[in-house]
Write the structure tokens for this entry.
Amino acid sequence: MNEEKQKITDKRAAMFSSARQDWATPQDLFDELNEEFHFNLDPCASDKNHKCERYFTEEDNGLLQEWGGSSVFCNPPYGAKSTGDWIEKCYNESRKPGTVVVMLIPARTDTKAFHKYIYKKAEVRFIKGRLKFGGSKDAAPFPSMLVIFRSEDQKGDKMKAEIKLKDFFTLIGPAQIIRVIDEEAGEQDEDQILYKGVAAKARDKVDTDRMIKFIIPEALPEEAGRYVLKIYIY
């Protein structure tokens, strides 16, 4: 490999290193979300990349600041512990009156933070495909999701997920219990429940190229700590 190609390889490896924690928000994604939420606080920013007029830098430490009463866009550092700390902070701040927090984080549904602070406590939107962060030509090595924390009276259990069923399977793992339902027909007719069981066996029963409309998680009363994902496809 010549020297120029090695430099490109080294640069790309650094960009996608598992040690990397800063992933600059794609501007088009932020603009689309800003149209909906009208953000006025960016708690994970720098003087050069902040998305809102009011922002906190690493030196300010947004984890220690007050967010109450704000519409917050949070793209936190991505690390096993650091992301969890920010998820907890977003959840706690969203409980304050007049506060909405939108997080952009890796789509990892198997973490303690997801089940403690997100599952059945926030709206989740799984993003189709892989994002290109910071103007990069290369897609990130992980899928992403948006987590929307709202005040108590605005919460809902539905998780929006405009992605193909097969792509969602890569997120939830083969052992997840699911129920796949034809969204147009609803769940009243048993014939419209296309599959019930673990995700690993669904591929032989359902057209996994069909798109998911939304997902409703429900706890299994007979199995503490486990739940079924009711997946509505169209």
About this structure: The radius of gyration is 19 Å. DSSP finds five helices and nine strands in the chain. The beta strands are 71-74, 100-106, 123-126, 144-149, 159-160, 177-182, 193-198, 212-219, 227-233. Confidence is low (pLDDT under 50) at residues 5-21.
